[in-house]
Design brief:
With 478 residues, the chain is mainly β. The chain has a single domain, classed as Glycoside hydrolase, family 7, domain (1,4-Beta-D-Glucan Cellobiohydrolase I, Chain A, Distorted Sandwich), CATH 2.70.100. It contains seven helices and 31 strands. The protein has helices spanning 83-89, 97-101, 352-362, 367-370, 373-383, 400-403, 429-435; strands at residues 21-22, 35-37, 44-46, 49-52, 59-61, 70-71, 74-75, 90-92, 103-106, 109-113, 115-117, 121-123, 125-130, 138-139, 144-151, 159-166, 201-202, 205-206, 212-213, 221-222, 226-228, 231-237, 242-247, 255-257, 292-293, 298-299, 304-312, 321-330, 333-336, 385-393, 440-450. The strands form nine sheets. Strands 2, 3, 9, 10, 15, 27, 28, 29 and 31 form a nine-stranded mixed β-sheet that branches. It is globular. Residues 1-19 form the signal peptide. GO terms for molecular function: cellulase activity. Keywords: Carbohydrate metabolism, Cellulose degradation, Glycoprotein, Glycosidase, Hydrolase, Polysaccharide degradation, Signal. Its EC number is 3.2.1.-.
Amino acid sequence: MSTTRSLTILSSLLALVSAQQVGTNTPETHPALKSQDCSAGACKNLDTTIVLDSNWRWLHSSNGSTANCYTGNTFNEELCPDGETCAANCAVDGAKYTETYGIKSAGSELTLKFVTQGESANVGSRVYLMEGAEEYKMFKLKNKEFTFDVDVSKLPCGLNGALYFSEMAADGGMSTAPTNKAGAKYGTGYCDAQCPHDIKFIDGKANSDGWSGSANDKNAGSGALGACCAEMDIWEANSMSTAFTPHPCSITGLKACTGSECGDDGADRYAGVCDKDGCDYNAFRMGNKEFYGAGMTVDTSKPFTVVTQFITSDKTDTGDLSEIRRVYVQDGKVIENPASAAAGVTGNSITDDFCAAQKKAFGDNNAFATAGGLKAMGESFERGMVLVMSLWDDHAANALWLDSQYPLDKDPTAPGVARGTCGRDTGKPEDVEANHPDATVTYSNIKFGAIGSTFDSAAAPAAPPAAAPPAGGKFLKA
């Protein structure tokens, strides 16, 4: 993602954070969310479920009391004098998915609500796809495609309905951190390419050392540790703009980073182990300003299908990842991703050459290549990645990097700065939370399998995109 995800509003009664011990106040029952495996020529249903990230959960004393280990944006100093002691003293509990978090799952459809007013006000959520009761579903997508339906019609400027992959551990980190007693069953082990510092527990201990509350979010903070790992953003979007972005890292799995290896903003941004910028394909940013939005080629006023293909150099599961292609399907018609209309950049898919040309044309640092490019991203998928689905607002940059003009210190007319039609004064969390509490995103019909197996590639083509795809840039069929 292009920003740290500080996503919840907590009350003094319920501190929705992550933990390593397990509480007994609320049973943990994972809502069902069916997915489909289309690898064998015919799609078959999988009895997969979802689990809420532990960063949202109630964290309380593990001695049987209900004393909070975290309230507002601070840890309880008595229970959490240091990270190890906090892990021993504190327990995470089960979740009331719909009542507390506004998460509704039925059949193959998942809806995430933005603001839910229960015993406390909850903002946003993040869930993972599970295989069984104790482990995340692991995806290995080289030479494969991944497909889902999405409805972003109720997502205004400033919100991000995100579906992506993270190189998390299948068990949530239990095997490598013995102090982690909760594991994937309770949504532990999160990491991404932003090396977020707002994760309350990393590698089985609290991130309480050096923790400080956020200056603009009364319920968020950051510690000395960051949680780094590779990230593949299949989908970051609202009804105005969308982007898909690989973020490779030079590490394997989760790394609890400190100092410059975290690549924090400022002088160290490009010194870290992960590519925070990524190589994004945002049609608007690439000059196709009538492709995505209400009433446009991909009409965001109604649901549509998103297909992402991970092409390898030799068309096998073991070859190097060499290209990421995007296809949309809406109203029975296949819509190809539009070719770049930006000067000096060609192509309608993500390749190492496309990324190098884009970085040069937009004056951006090519940290993507430094971190290993598509080959490194493919190696993450070869090891296995976890599917993440979320809805969040952005306390760091108001999501301007997604749907407006960004960065703010650049001329809005400079190449690559315009990413959508939202104004630079939009997306402020206090405004979005007050004016759009009922915003939702719906993900459904998750499918994965061989190239061409998850959608009807023979469907009638839609009207041509703003620019014709280059030779060889079409989607692949089975």
